[in-house]
Amino acid sequence: MVGSELDFKEAFSQDQLSIENINTLKKQVYTTKENHEQLEKNLKTLRSSIKNTNDAEAKENTLILGICLWIAGKQEEAIEILTELKSRKIACYFLGKCHQELKDYEKAIDYFERSKQADTKEFETLIGIAETQRMSGDLQGALKSIEKLSKAYDGEASLHYQWANCLDDLGEDEDALTHYNRALEINPSHPDTLFRLAYDFDLSGEDEKALEYYEKCIDEVPLYTNAVINLGIVYEDNGEYEKAVSCYETVLQSYPNHEIAKLYLKDSRAGINMHYDDDKVKKADIEIEVLNIPISDFELSVRSKNCLERMNIKTLADLTQVSELELLSYKNFGETSLTEITNILNQKGLRLGQAVDEMKHNDIFIDDPGVNEDNLSTPISEMDISKHCKKVVEKMGIQTIGELVSKTETELLEHKGFKQADIDEINDQFDKLGLKLCSGNDNE
């Protein structure tokens, strides 16, 4: 049925009406843009038909309309329609789904309970209850429900997925992985399991495994938007910008107004055109090499050497962090020694106090004099920024806010995986803390 032309009559006929067939129809709707457009046309037709048909037929069309609204992601409107039919078990099931998706978990469980068949135990309804318990934070209640179900439904992939998800949230990683693997044994293309494993591998920094599972996940329908977005981010981290662009374009084909996809697409397209200035990199490496030259490599007078040793100045970099005044104020350090050192620094294109002056010029830290400087020691992991943003910042070896504010936007954007969207996130958070990224001096 998936991938073919929509057949609402078949899915909603009295003989075919079931949760399984409706879920299949939902997958079919999101297979192509044309199918989604056909769903919207059907919604209009159903609304009109309800007004122009007899009571029995109107009620049936009302049920179909409510379910179609759920398929279209219009939960609140679906609730309004389906509430009129809450005496019917199947209407209660989809009312439960709507409330679950709107995070009204108490009502969701209530409707799932009402949707139970008197003569049979409907698995979709029972696992819906367990899933809602998990989503509401009642992990122990969810596990009890799942363990009861496992006696009769051990062969259901979604049972093991929910089981693994509960264990995952409880921090029982090994047991969770056992159930994720069991779900994939039953159904190798189970999309929820593939996405959760991909996400977990992504968080733990296992990029190759995350990539493998994201790629498997995006082959499923309906389009797993979060998986496609995350896959694009992984591609960007690996410098595969063309593949990242393809991911974001795929999302926008189905969801043209998806703001995150539009933003990331812009950044990844910029990444394709980005070129690295090799000369600039080489120059920076040479500067670091020069700054690390030991003072002992130069021919200085014994007095100068002794004074520098006592001041714990060992490299040229150390010299750039002291001023002429500081040197001259030191005991036994005179004009002759100052001239010696100045000449050495000039030969290397450096000067005394250079690092201090650059630090002042960059205006690194405080935007508001009344800011709480304790914020500077806050770990990046505690910042209210996205997972991707934290990941690229930490890949740069930056551990605290204090280290982050010493970077310019240009420095951050030159790092692989950093995007303008990440800069915007950081700036938003820094505004709240009275901080700002280093202004730098692009003209120097």
Could you characterize the architecture of this molecule?
There is one protein chain. This protein is mostly helical. Among the domains are: 1-115, Serine Threonine Protein Phosphatase 5, Tetratricopeptide repeat, CATH 1.25.40; 278-352, DNA polymerase, domain 1; 363-433, DNA polymerase, domain 1, CATH 1.10.150. The protein is 65% helix and 0% strand. It contains 26 helices and no strands. It has helices at 8-11, 19-29, 33-51, 55-71, 75-82, 89-101, 105-114, 123-135, 139-153, 157-169, 173-186, 191-203, 207-217, 225-237, 241-254, 259-273, 278-291, 302-310, 316-319, 324-328, 335-347, 354-362, 387-395, 401-404, 409-413, 420-433. The radius of gyration is 31 Å and the shape is elongated. The relative contact order is 0.04.
Task: Furnish the topology, listing elements before pairings.
Elements: H1 8-11, H2 19-29, H3 33-51, H4 55-71, H5 75-82, H6 89-101, H7 105-114, H8 123-135, H9 139-153, H10 157-169, H11 173-186, H12 191-203, H13 207-217, H14 225-237, H15 241-254, H16 259-273, H17 278-291, H18 302-310, H19 316-319, H20 324-328, H21 335-347, H22 354-362, H23 387-395, H24 401-404, H25 409-413, H26 420-433
Helix pairs in contact: 3-4, 4-5, 4-6, 5-6, 6-7, 6-8, 7-8, 8-9, 8-10, 9-10, 10-11, 12-13, 12-14, 13-14, 14-15, 14-16, 15-16
